[in-house]
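Q: Hi! Curious about what DUF4143 domain-containing protein looks like structurally. Here's the sequence.
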Amino acid sequence: MDPSLGASALGLGVDELSKDLEAAGLHFESLVARDLRVYSQPLGAALSSWRDSRTGAQIDIVLELPDGTWAGIEVKLGENAADEAAASLLRMADKIDHDRHGEPAALIVITGGRYSYKRADGVCVVPITALGP
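A: Let's find out. The predicted structure is below.
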């Protein structure tokens, strides 16, 4: 579903969303999930999320290909949240049973920023504008 429909139904425009960054972030996360679903569908990928029931730690999106290859993805509207998101991804990757699920093919933070780069810890930071078929 197009997340702009929800914003429109609620009467939320640019002015309203710029005053409520938490709501804007949730709409941005929905937009990224929709885009990833559309772009990964021809590959037979499945999108889900992950949450540790003991600690409450969570990952926004887990993209898994039919062969079991997977990537952990955090979505942050602002680039300044990339460090916290990367740390969260790395903690999650350490908790996964790699014998059962394998190592992540990638850990990615998708932002509303402008630049793509790979951090020293291996986490990729990618702007939403870099997504595409």
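A: A fun detail: The chain is about 40% helix and 25% strand.
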